[in-house]
Amino acid sequence: KNEVEQSPQNLTAQEGEFITINCSYSVGISALHWLQQHPGGGIVSLFMLSSGKKKHGRLIATINIQEKHSSLHITASHPRDSAVYICAVETSGSRLTFGEGTQLTVNP
Amino acid sequence: GAVVSQHPSWVICKSGTSVKIECRSLDFQATTMFWYRQFPKQSLMLMATSNEGSKATYEQGVEKDKFLINHASLTLSTLTVTSAHPEDSSFYICSAASGGSITTEAFFGQGTRLTVV
What we know:
The structure holds 2 protein chains of 2 kinds. By secondary structure, chain A is mainly beta. Chain A is built from no helices and 11 strands. Chain A has strands spanning 4-7, 10-14, 19-25, 31-37, 43-49, 52-56, 59-64, 69-74, 83-90, 96-98, 102-107. In chain A, strands 2, 4, 5, 9, 10 and 11 form a 6-stranded mixed beta sheet that branches. The model of chain A has no long low-confidence stretch (mean pLDDT 93). By secondary structure, chain B is mainly beta. In chain B, the strands form 2 sheets. In chain B, strands 2, 4, 5, 6, 9, 10 and 11 form a 7-stranded mixed beta sheet that branches. Chain B has a 4-stranded antiparallel beta sheet with strand order 1-3-8-7, with no helix packed on it. The model of chain B has no long low-confidence stretch (mean pLDDT 89). The chains are: A mainly beta, B mainly beta. Chains A and B meet through β4, β5, β9 and β10 of A and β4, β5, β9 and β10 of B.
């Protein structure tokens, strides 16, 4: 069993839909990161969370430390949101352990 | 946000040759840099942690003599894939942190797609 598990693995949505990607982890963490990887491979950091909730534009990230669970929400999805979304947990020594990613495709 | 520049973005090399990948932090001092490898449809895997001025710490199963890491300055770390083989073909990406930890967000380079023929 992976230390970080994401669901779903693949997600197809219509433009405008509300999207949720989930991440569960099984280890103690100091922080959780949500990353976006574009088809060319480049990775952009979306959020770093250690508690509660953060919002940036149409993106919202929440974390429940007790339940070891985090969610990434995208409101009013758009085709340009199509990418792989990766959950990563930061453990001791600033190591990042990554989930396998969620491939999101938003159709116009 | 901070910028991490990785070069080259892609490289094709012949088996047996060596390839050097550079990772630069452009607007902050990166005391720690991390090197990852990603095979198609798989998640990123940490290869090694590089601290400025000291030897890199390699993850289990990563050959330190094959993947040479140098972090000679606070803004530059290099990964050299020596005697490359086709199975080394992969996407290599670095990330940088200041102060020895990723305190606010993770800053990644653009990645290098290596193809060994």
